[in-house]
Each structure stands twice: as structure tokens, then as C-alpha cells.
Amino acid sequence: MPASHPAHVDPAKIPAHVAIIMDGNGRWARQRGLPRIEGHRRGVETVREIVDAARELGVRYLTLYAFSVENWQRPADEVGALMSLLEIFLKREVKNLIKNRVRLRTIGRTHELPGPVQTQLQRALDATAHFTDYTLALALNYGSRTEIVDAARAYAAAVAAGREKLNDSSWATFSRYLYTADLPDPDLVIRTSGETRVSNFLLLQAAYAEFLFIPVLWPDFTKAHLAEAIATFARRERRFGLTGEQLKPTVPPAK
Ligand code: FPP
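Above: the input entities. Below: the C-alpha cells describing the complete assembly.
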């Protein structure tokens, strides 16, 4: 069956949360002799397509790495262009998000984004906060190490204020201070463009995630590629530190 029709995937094996490192916009543009920003522009089209595709394929949470804390170091015109693409995306897309009942969330230090981006972001967040079926989380000014520092600081403040007890510290209590407090851990992390790096993305949350590095530049990534990635994920055995035998049902499934 073609990958764009993943009806053959057991619904129980569809990853609830897919997180994507969208890489390769610059190379896509260079291959065509275009400025890098054209790659990002085309990348936004892919974002639109994949937000819908993931929902149609049964994914409940989609996290997209749109701007990292390190990305500020790119040339100022590229940073400016990415910010204005983001602003336009949020402004234009809010209608579709509402129509498709998509809840928007962000992870990252969004308070450091330019004012006009924050304004559009807040509008979109407010207009979609009540949806529950499908969540799009945009990682904006995000970095795992920054997130851990922010969480440690907030946790220390909570301990100092008596809201948390240091002796009761556990992953369950500490993880509530991460940006992702109300998001499940990603089941599948995809990086496009063929690079095999994690680049400071969801380092703690992806502790048990499956990783797929797909040699397709982000502007060329389609619903069919996502469907194929989901089918590959469904064939993998996730053990969470247990043995394969422990995971096998002791009673054979009814015929
Ligand atoms: C990586 O490609 C991509 C980025 C750093 C930015 C991703 C942003 C978008 C797809 C558009 C804005 C997002 C939204 C949600 C509207 P690269 O530039 O590192 O590519 P290269 O490695 O080929 O140079």
C-alpha cells in the first residue's frame, strides 16, 4: 500500500506525539540558486501541509522546532526574515487552526521574541486554547539546556517558597517545571535533511523516543514521507528499559 495511505498501521501503534527538527531550508534554496529566505518561505508551506497531515494520520501532538536559541546568531537579515515569516504565519493561520480545531502551544523563551510576533502569538494561543483533540507546539527561541536552567531556577524558587520539598524531588515533580509540563513526551523525533544531530531539542523529553533521520530537505517533506515515518515507527519495538520477553503478552491474542 502506498505510504500516503497508512490505513495498514495498527492505530494503537501510531505515535501520539511526533516532534520534528525541520532542517534543510538553506540547502533547498542553494540548490536552486535562490536566497536562503526562499527556502524558509517554502518551509512554511511545508509546515502548513504537515500540520494537517499529522492530524489526518492520527497524531495527537506535533512539535515543530521553528527557532532555536542558537538561531539568533544567524545573519541579522535571515533572523529578521524568519521573524516576519513567523508573524505572517500566525496571523494568516489562526483561521485554519480554529477551523481544524488545533490547539496552539509554544515551548521556549517566547517573551524574548519581537513584540509583533508576541502579539500574533498571543492572539493565536488565546483563540485555540480550548481545543483538545490535536495540539501543535511550536518550539520558538527554544533550547533544551536553556529549558533545564529555567526549570531548575523555577524549581529552586518553589523549594525556597515551601511549595516543593527538596526531599520529595523526583522526575514527576521536577518535570512539571519544564516548558513541556502539559505535553506528553515525544514518541517519535524526526530530523529532515539527512543530518544526524539532536541539536539541543527535547533532550530530556526524548529519553525513550524513537529517532528517524530522513534524507529529505524540509521544503520537500510531504505527507507521504510522514506516513512512511509513522509506519516505520509502528514496526519498531519500544522496550523502555525492559527485555523483549517482558513486553510480549503471556497469553496469545485471541484469533
Ligand atoms: C533549518 O533549515 C530551518 C530553520 C532554522 C528554521 C525553520 C523555520 C521554518 C520552516 C519557517 C518558520 C516556521 C514557522 C512555524 C512558520 P536551515 O536554514 O538550517 O537549512 P540548512 O541546514 O540547509 O542551511
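Note for the figure: The longest strand covers residues 134-142.
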